Amino acid sequence: MTERKVTAELAEWVVGLKGSDIPESVRAEGVRTFVNWLGCAVGGADHETADAALRAVMPFSGQRTSTVIGRTEKLDALHAALLNGITSHVLDYDDTHLKTIIHPAGPIASALMALAETRPMSGYDFLTALVIGVEVECRIGNAVYPDHYDRGWHITGTAGVFGAAAAVGHVIGLNKQQMQWALGLAATQSSGLREMFGTMTKSFHPGRAAQNGMFAALMAEAGYDSSEQGIEAKRGWANVASTKQDYDEILGELGTRWEAALNSYKPFACGIVIHPTIDGCQQIREEIGARVADIASVHLRAHPLVLELTGKKTPRTGLEGKFSVYHSAACALLRGDGAPTAFTDEVVTLPEIIDLRDRITAEANPACHEASVDITVTFKDGTTLEKHVERAIGSLERPLSNEQIETKFVNQAKLVVGEEITRNLLALAWKIEELNPADIAAASVPAATRAVE
Question: Domain MmgE/PrpD N-terminal spans what residues (predicted)?
């Protein structure tokens, strides 16, 4: 399909799509995507990463029109998009398109929410743009995955910038040529390296994708041009960033095959490949009760990607703990915890966690599916217990219910903005199609908080 004008055809679809063209089931999944994103953005709003980012950008902010979700500060729309992308991803608790390991909502919802306070839009149009952005982002990711990811690119950042550009471009009414320019401008700003996992910079990727994607759309609106084949040209994004280019993944069955319907939501605040291990260890903890104190050793057998991504044996910080299958297993067994509270600097250095973590070994097994794990627990008396997890909770096979998404929302957001604001914000989030998105942003502001000057 390389002879097809991929960027042009995609731009035409984005520009021409109406909200009524999106099936109700897909729009409903879009609402779930938004609710989950909003809870994560509030949950991460008081993280030290957000504080550092605010200290860096506040002196350079333009007119402060847009809310940093879950905080009292406002920034110009571009910088607010950056901050909201950072906070919604910093806990590693956000949504996941499992086919590509993209976290779709961060780049897109962060840009749209910041824009909504400067360019009024209805909730219906907001949700339409959100679904479009997720669709574009995930289809472009499909076209280059897994080679692009295996080469070291963080695909949430690199594909997310296209989703943000498409979403913002749609909602501000770009024409086809402008949308081609926006996608080209997004392509040339695509970035994010997996080397940054376990540091503050990982969450910078979806933040920058939100900011850059919005900027791409606004530049195109102003008449700033780019190549009109930014995705598929010989020296365009797909050919430079990957040895795989499957353009049918981008253009095939547009409007009938919906990647946005395949989104999933994390029950645990860490790398997705660790989730089967946490799920299995929590099940074991429930089964053995007090015998957890008698564990002599634990052995994990998982796909090689699990150890490649999360093989940090001795994490030093909470952010590094999110990429340690050893820390995650120890927390799940000793504390039953896989929430953000399991991945703090304090918990990572607890003596009892370190003691069990040092008795956990992991073996790469290519025959094991990426989403599965085998766990063997050996007790001090020599007896063993084995657990196989085929698919973890939160997967497409075992999706989180709306009630579970609500519980996740409340448990993280109330720690930042309090119970009353959290409950009100959750109720508003489910009604996004009926409301002004700017009102939801305003409702996320805590009554009092420590502000960064």
Answer: 9-248
